[in-house]
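Re: the request from the purification team.
They wanted to know what the chain is likely to look like in 3D before they choose a buffer screen. I agreed to run a prediction and write the result into the notebook, where they can find it.
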Amino acid sequence: MMLLISLMATALSACAGGKAGSADADSLITIGIPQDLDDSLDPHIAEGAGTREVLFNVFEGLVKPNSNGDLIPAVAESYSINEDGTVYTFTLRKNVKFHNGAKVTVQDVKASLDKCAGTGSDEPLVAAFSAVSAINTPDESTIEVVLKESDTDFLPNLTAAILPADHLDASVDPIGTGPYKYVSRSPQENIVLESFDDYWGEKAHIKNVVLKIVPDGDTIVMNLEGGSIDLMARLSTTQAAQLSDNFDIYEGTMNLVQAVYLNNAVEPFNNTKVRQALCYAVDIQEIMDFVSDGKGTETGSSMFPAFGKYYVKELNDTYNTDIEKAKQLLSEAGYPDGFEFSITVPSNYQQHVDTAQVVKEQLKKIGVTANINLVEWDTWLNDVYIGRNFEATVIGVDASTLTASAMLGRFVSDSGKNFINYNNAEYDKIYNEAFTSTDDAVRTEKYKECEKILSTDAANVYIQDLPNMVAVNKKFGGYEFYPLYVMDFSKLYVK
């Protein structure tokens, strides 16, 4: 049978009025981004949300999300899922081309998915593909993805990028099927994309896109007003208020969980009572009022509100501000006079810097001294995320796909993405029960149990899903929000 799966969507406003025409050969938009794409241009291994945000325009999977959060056919023209959710069958769309002009074949699809599944190796490259037992090509237009066990919620993982079979390493010269193709990159300066004339779907409206790296948050307004960039997302409310009438301001959400992420493997954060004390000490509403004029949405665990099916609002009350309780827990943990630690924050994200500043002041009330260590993005990525050499950090964690496992799987003890070194055998057990369950209701409840464990165990000091303020020069229209951390350049047009 044909089963179309609709995902949760955020109710966000779309673009300004106006009709987009075909791409003009001379049309150009310059978009500011806060950091270079420095982890990898390979979509199967890229970790940074900012990297995946850009690569969304270059690569496509068998399916892809639209701005409503629904999964729609992409490289595949249709798909079906068998009754017990063990076989996903796709019919390849005719005449889809790669950016190098080659036609996409089932061999390309199989090679790409085999790469994700780690076929021939001990470990899958993409963790979710551990559920795959076989990838078959019955004929030249059909691809079957066979799972080891029933899972009717596997489809979001098949947004995984399809690459040419003879060019599976996309880290240097990315070749995809998306509406934009990669042209060039000047490290720490810009990335250049160009619309793909042979794109199978609705073609991009602006021919040339330049992504300019703007690592200094203090210069964003100057860059916008000076005309060196035309669009910038994730502005603070203060920055948005400083802009002239030359810009339209769109307001959505970032679809992430901002928190003070704690390294659970180092003292004193290997002590649950210390982590709980920090949770009691912070005032979330005060943080949201200062950082974003109260526009944020509180999150009490590692799930943001757009995941309506899994988001548990009640967890926001696990640790309501209680200074005396915080002091008591610190004393019980052996720190009656508090302690000193460092919060490492990427300097190019003003909202995270501002949040760290507020947290620093709030923790003084319980005798804890927080020193803020501002670092460049690549330093944060290498030292904190990859090297796990930190005590605490303020950052936002997003989902690579609209699945609960994308948010919660990283806290399994042996996960390569578990940068906070969280280790809880009960959490691992319940997460595995959720991940392997064939009953959607059971899976959902188990994932919610995981969220409760993270919350009550104070794995991190959970704060909010930040508002996303986007400034667009009024010369352009078509900006749309997605329920994922992506930006669709193809929808933009010159008014």
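For the purification team: The chain has twelve helices and 21 strands.
Please add any questions underneath this entry.
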